[in-house]
Amino acid sequence: MSEANARAVAPDAPKVGFVSLGCPKALTDSELILTQLSAEGYRTSKTFEGADLVIVNTCGFIDDAVKESLDTIGEALAENGRVIVTGCLGAKSAEGGGNLVRKMHPKVLAVTGPHATQEVMDAVHLNLPKPHDPFVDLVPNGFGVAGIKLTPRHYAYLKISEGCNHRCTFCIIPSMRGDLVSRSIGDVLTEAKALFEGGVKELLVISQDTSAYGVDVKYRIGFWDGKPVKTRMLELVQQLGDLAEPYGAWVRLHYVYPYPSVDEIIPLMATGRVLPYLDVPLQHSHPDVLRRMKRPASGERHLERIQAWRDACPELVIRSTFIAGFPGETEDEFAHLLDFVREAQIDRAGCFAYSAVDGATANSLPGMLPIELREERRARFMAVTEEVSSIRLQRRVGSIMQVLVDSAPGMGKKGGVGRSYADAPEIDGVVRLLPPEKISKTLKVGDFTKARVLSANGHDLVALPI
Ligand code: SF4
Q1: For a pocket test of ligand 1, which of 62, 162, 167, 171 has the largest count of ligand atoms closer than 8 A to its C-beta?
Q2: 71: left (phi over 0), alpha (psi -120 to 50) or beta
Q3: Pairing of β 448-457 and β 460-465
Q4: DSSP-assigned beta bridge partners for residue 56
């Protein structure tokens, strides 16, 4: 938590250590819990030392994440002894039944699943009574109604819904987080406004399926600023674009599935209302593999759709994730994927070799490939995608880009690091900023600067602030 986000609390208030693991969705769960702790006057810390108890927010998605979460719980038990566990791993069953966390670490005080602020708070109250301080106000001062954020102050994740209505065969998220529940549009926009007012320069919209926003409430009409607004992606993005404009802030969309309705968002990107950047988790291109995966929009013609988007918005940057070596994937189906990445000119791509996740239905599909073949296909995929990506990055050399500064020691006199619209934090590349030539020019974290791109290096650009 940054100093700016911390609030004044009684110096002898009970102290809760907090560890947040996992994806941005888990991070927003952590933010809700920390906001509530702070609102009730608890002190929080990122270390176990001196804490009266520790909360570990876990991830249970892939085997490495499960191991990291279980190790962290073990460490917290060894160093502190009083531990509450929340998050996706908390919802997982052990082989042979019973709760996995309780089975591995029977000494934990309480275990909850993800998105369970109230249950976590109940467990905290039971084990560490609420501090009583009549002079402590009840609203945390991080970002007003938006609460405390764990990201640097100039960018923030905005979670618009929880859960997912799909049942992709490789995924267990719906069993951990439940079906889609969209937040009310009024609440989402109120939080966005508070974030911009608090200095956020980049808002990252997240969910499990951003294009499905509002499906569960049949696109109900909500209210914002005294006006009726539909609970739907198009209206949400329009409103976010309007809210961001006076602050010159960016709005970036993640986890957008390629449904036909996304076509309506592209003109907003072409006119700069929101960033021309789409994080579209495609996972594969071959229709038969997509069907076996039970992917949303698997019947859509991805290539044609992406080409139409690019025609309407030539600046569009597409990031995606893929799985190589899904059960039954033939060499032809894999070759289809490689051709797709080349033809669709995917700017940024990540790839996992398929790995069985406990409880996923894909585990019982026929045609499980040997791990060596899955890894080999992943490596071949990465070689192709890196080639595509670096050619696309090279095209930027010589251009002038708007860069959001993430780091600039000494006011940037020795340079700094930032990101352009094409780079989401944590997952994409960065723009390495050289020391400005003009003596009067300084760089400040959270400010925008224009920069001339001098070269491309791997996933990153090197640029001179102007
Ligand atoms: S869309 Fe598929 S992969 Fe994504 S959360 Fe839902 S079930 Fe999982």
Answers
A1: 171
A2: alpha
A3: antiparallel
A4: 19, 85
DSSP state of 59: -
Tell me the whole-structure pTM to 2 decimals: 0.79
Tell me how far the alpha carbon of residue 248 is from its chain's centroid.
Answer: 22
Q: Which residue has the tokens 């020795």?
A: 414
Q: How far apart are CA 165 and CA 296, in angstroms?
A: 10
- Centre of ligand 1 to C-alpha 291, Å, is 14
Q: In this predicted model, what pLDDT tens digit does every residue of 390-435 receive, in sequence order?
A: 999 999 999 999 999 999 999 999 999 999 999 999 899 999 999 9
CA dist., res. 360 & res. 321, Å (int): 19
The residues, ordered by sequence, that sit 6+ positions from 378 with a Cβ below 8 Å of its Cβ are 324, 325, 351, 352, 353
| Alpha carbon distance 44, 37 (integer Å) | 8
Instruction: Return all residues near 335 (Cβ < 8 A) that are at least 6 apart.
Output: none
CA 143 from centroid of its chain's CA atoms: 19
Closest CA to 92 of 112, 77, 118: 112
CA distance 19 to 145: 23
Tokens of 32: 């809700």
Q: Which DSSP state fits 211? A: G
d(CA 234, CA 263): 10
Ligand 1 close to Cβ of residue 296 (< 6 A): yes
Rounded to whole angstroms, how far apart are CA atoms 466 and 464? 6
208 Cα to the center of ligand 1, angstroms: 6
- For the stretch 98-153, pLDDT in tens is 889 999 999 999 999 888 888 898 899 888 887 754 443 333 446 766 777 788 88
Q: Is 162 in the pocket of ligand 1 (CB under 6 A)?
A: no
Query: Minimal CA–CA distance to 163: which of 175, 176, 184, 180?
Result: 180
Residues in the chain: 466
SS3 per residue for 250-281: EEEECCCCCCHHHHHCHHHHHCCCCCCEEECC
Each residue's pLDDT tens digit, 10-56:
667 889 999 999 888 888 889 889 888 887 888 888 788 789 999 99
Cβ atoms of 418 and 450 closer than 8 Å: no
